[in-house]
Amino acid sequence: MAKYAMYGPLAATVMYSWIYEDSYKHPWCVHILIICALRGFMHQLWNSYNNMLFLGNCRIKQQGVEFKQIDNEWDWDNFILLQGLLATMACLMFPSMDDEFPIWNTKGFITLMLLHVMVSEPLYYWMHRFFHGRYLFTHYHSLHHSSSVPHPFTAGHATFLEHLILSMVIGIPIMGSILMGSGSTSMIYGYVLGFDFMRCMGHSNVEVIHGAIFNKLPFLRYLIYTPTYHSLHHSDMGTNFCLFMPLFDAMWNTLNRNSWQLHNKITSNSGENGRVPDFVFLAHIVDVMSAMHIPFVNRSFASIPFSTRMFLLPIWPVTLMILLMMWAWSKTFLHTFYNLRGRLYQTWVVPRFGFQYFLPFAADGINKKIEEAILKADRMGVKVISLAALNKNEALNGGGTLFVNKHPQLKVRVCHGNTLTAAVIVNEIPKDVKEVFLTGSTSKLGRAIALYLCRRRIRVLMLTLSTERFQKIQKEAPADTQNYLVHVTKYQAAQNCKTWIAGKWITPWEQSWAPSGTHFHQFVVPPILASRRDCTYGDLAAMRLPEDVEGLGSCEYKLERGVVHACHAGGAVHQLEGWTHHEIGPIDVDRIDLVWEAALKHGFRPVFQP
């Protein structure tokens, strides 16, 4: 963020003129700031469009953008800052720039387009070809080609030398028109933003120009390139060097002969755009702020664990309005995807907030959305669909039982994934622990954890006000281990226990009863507040994905990179094992070890080591 301080002198000049002077002495300062902001916004819009997987776009490459590429392209906007500084230097060198340009000048536009076609296009073409020479490619241009999946931000991923040359390419038509006395404000804005638009389009992984247009007007294919056209340059680097006009590739015999065929194939949906996922994780929106933690809002932000960011606060009201509109009209949508051993795994999102799951009047509508998603997955041929967080709430749909009972003919396996969640929690507990304190002890997960631990001869202090529910669970335990389940009704009962398992929200005051050195394991959503400095807090039950996962470029809520919630991993294991049963309703305690061993066998790894 510190690099943006370089805009400070321009902003200070504008503020000084606005406050202390009758008119702007240096109007170009305002224009440079506005143009730089619009250029950044242009790239963000293209980023959003590229990552809106739910639009069913014609994707060129089916792979996902991985964390490594995101990190490499993190400072994609450096070229905007550089060109802003170069523009500032040009304005200081030419005092005539202090004069206000007319809004429109037809002669200027004609001059600019002639200079672009006759100078910028061939200049870029030949410089691009030179950069594919052995030395220049190895030391400079290979950085740009290191991005395996094209993305609008890839356009800005290059070396300083390349940015300087591109600045010259974009600057020649503008400065030429101005020096000929035919410059205008609309010409500068239009050319710079149009230049960025074309660059973003060319590096997009989504084809936006339908093949039918070129079939009806064949000459256009030589005047404007397409994302497919430029993608071939990244896969066959000896072809398709042009800036925006394939005419120059045709002139100098570097036009890839497969350009038009591939373009027609992709836009006619005859590629792999309709691939059916093997597994779907059905999530939901947590809250307004976390709703911005998605790739089509901010790719960089989505690639790191979620936390509240101050720079997102200004767009909070806009996000809220969009989410309210989604509540009224939106359907379940595709959020992210990754590949694992040739299988496609996707995350779909039910457009509902976390708090809505606790509104009685919203229950039927939420269940309808979940049911529609399950039936859609069934029609598509998805093998397993796993319900995340509140989508499997017992009070809402019995952990998925409602849908399976209503549609007994389902081919897709419905899975709550909580068996692996329970397995993760019990395996986090050190082997030498003899006693644990469990809140939410009569919930689905609480019951399974208590029954499992008592079999290991671990004393479980089960916090619940319901003697009836406690006794029901106690009777499920083997007769010789029932005495390891202890009914408690107050937090004071655990003041000597250093292993707490939070399945229900624990306030800071309630946490105060825990002795110093206590570790809080948890499966409560949202996680409890870490209010004790002398205690440690575990994250929600989660597992690290296998190392051979591909195309993963976003974090799952607050979890670190490559880590997913245990219920997500549980559904994936269900699919990898080829199990044919539905995992719904109460957790089968006898399967906890089986599911855990299956997860480890497939390369899933625990995040927390006891």
Keyphrases for this structure?
610 residues; single chain; six-stranded parallel β-sheet; 44% helix; 17 strands
Give a quick summary of the entry:
One of its GO terms (molecular function) is iron ion binding. With 610 residues, the protein is of the alpha/beta class.
Number of helices: 23
Q: Spans with pLDDT under 50 lasting ≥5 residues?
A: none
Counting helices, strands and paired strands, the structural category is: alpha/beta
Count of all domains: 3
Backbone shape: elongated
Textual characterization of the structure:
This protein has 610 residues and is of the alpha/beta class. β9 (459-463), α20 (467-476) and β10 (485-488) form a beta-alpha-beta unit. The longest helix has 25 residues, at 27-51. 44% of the residues lie in helices and 11% in strands. Strands 7-6-3-5-4-15 form a six-stranded mixed beta sheet, sandwiched between helices. A six-stranded parallel beta sheet has the order 10-9-8-11-12-13, covered by helices on one side. It has a three-stranded antiparallel beta sheet with strand order 16-14-17. It folds into three domains: 2-60 and 74-213, no CATH class; 279-415, no CATH class; 430-542, NAD(P)-binding Rossmann-like Domain (Rossmann fold), CATH 3.40.50. The mean pLDDT is 92. α4 runs parallel beside α7 (160-179) and α18 (418-428) packs across α23 (592-601). The chain has 23 helices and 17 strands. The protein has helices spanning 8-20, 27-51, 67-72, 78-93, 106-130, 134-145, 160-179, 185-202, 211-216, 227-235, 247-251, 259-267, 299-302, 316-329, 363-380, 394-397, 401-406, 418-428, 444-455, 467-476, 508-511, 566-577, 592-601; strands spanning 58-59, 206-207, 279-284, 333-340, 343-350, 384-387, 413-415, 435-439, 459-463, 485-488, 499-502, 519-522, 536-540, 542-544, 549-550, 563-565, 605-606. The protein is elongated and about 95 Å long. Pfam families: CER1-like_C, FA_hydroxylase. Belongs to the sterol desaturase family. The chain crosses the membrane at residues 164-192, 310-329. Its main location: membrane. It is a multi-pass membrane protein.
